[in-house]
Amino acid sequence: MTTMLITGGAGFIGSNFVRYVLENRPDASIINLDALTYSGNLENLAGLDEDPRFASRYEFVKGDIADRDLLAPLLDRTDIVIHMAAESHVDRSILDSAPFVRTNVLGTQALLDAARHSHAGKGVARFVHVSTDEVYGSLPLDRPDLKFTEDTPIQPNSPYAASKAASDLLVRAAFHTFHMPVLTTRCSNNFGPYQFPEKVIPLFVTNLIEGRKVPLYGDGKNVRDWLHVLDHCEAILTVAEKGRVGEVYNIGGDNERSNLDLTRAILDIMGKGHDMIQPVEDRKGHDRRYAIDASKIERELGWRPTRSAWPDALEQTVRWYMANAEWWRHVKSGAYREFYKQQYSGRERVGA
Ligand code: NAD
Ligand code: TYD
Questions:
Q1: Beta-bridge partner residues of 131
Q2: CATH code where residue 38 lies
Q3: Ligand 2 centre and the CA of 200: distance in Å?
Q4: Which residue among the candidates 59, 64, 133, 234 is catalytic per the annotation?
């Protein structure tokens, strides 16, 4: 049995990853370490504890990745770390970058230290750091030939991206200085179930169901490369199992869309008029375009996206939010924050 410590496993990508691993790796057991910040939601994982296929292989620990006392005993029980816990929303980082530095930089530092000192100084077998294409900065719209490769200079533009870049550099230093078996992934924008409705797709879909307009920043021409979250999960697991330590792997969907095209596609799927678009002031420092060259992970590890094809994958995701109104209404109303207290309080096995 391989034990994975997944940090941030109650968030959007983390909860999809926890399910993905439990369903696809019967010889893996999971410790899910999550502080349950505003974006951590145990309703994303509802049912796992009771599922007889998973119950003995899944454990939730409520805690902070910066809490070194908590980390030490957990890392002694861990073979592979999958580090996803982060403050993840650009707009929040513009309002206040302090939690971003605390969790993304200092939290990653604490986790790296604990992973290195675990197992009586032998350390964990693998440490996968889940990062983002946003560390590379922004590409121009008039150069469609340019894409981010793993060799593109790190030039983050938002406080979020800067904090992730700092964490990437700590991971790099851990490899070079301490020979830690680290791997870094840098992925493009994800879509799929259980995404916190502050991010553009779930925000727009849920606004429209509520009869509200959708706030499109600036001229709407900014481009993002969209990847289905389960393709991302599969890529992370592939890197964890087959990647070369010390390497960075870009992950992308080869699926570039302008925000205006994305918004129109959502409106069309939902049968809403384009007059529901509300142009609003642009985001400060808004990166123009992200585009990923994912040829390295395909060439070396044989991974390619299979679930991200447009527009079907987008339509499936839009329909998931339409069918799961109870989930996002709890999030938008804040009711999900009570779920932990009712269902879990006192049941976590911290450092057991
Ligand atoms: P999310 O905000 O949905 O989830 C983050 C999770 O981390 C939450 O469950 C939260 O409670 C937890 N967390 C935050 N601070 C913590 C702390 N100090 N200790 C323990 N847990 C803490 O984010 P997401 O979209 O699922 O992103 C997950 C990771 O993937 C992040 O590292 C992010 O940078 C990266 N990423 C995201 C995307 C994307 O499109 N969403 C793309 C590329 C990379
Ligand atoms: P977001 O989902 O916040 O992801 P990221 O900033 O990490 O790419 O935003 C995706 C794109 O959508 C980005 O270009 C900003 C834009 N956007 C809007 O136009 N309106 C919104 O209300 C939000 C949240 C984002």
A1: 186
A2: 3.40.50.720
A3: 5
A4: 133
